[in-house]
Amino acid sequence: MSHCTDTLNRNYRPSMNPDLSWGYRRIFVVAHETRVRNRWLRLRLRMTSPNVKVKSIRTRRYKAQNI
Hints:
Elements: H1 2-11, H2 18-48, H3 50-66
Helix pairs in contact: 2-3
């Protein structure tokens, strides 16, 4: 059994299979891009309307108390 898993791992190693590694990299890059975009959107909202800031802080404290 261990021998089979070892061969599978060797076959699916990113260095041996560039397509697979690129797929994983693309997923991570997309996740990071969405995170950055959300942060920028939040900052923009914060600049335009001051109420958003107060609400976000309030909800954050409320969640912390619940946990």
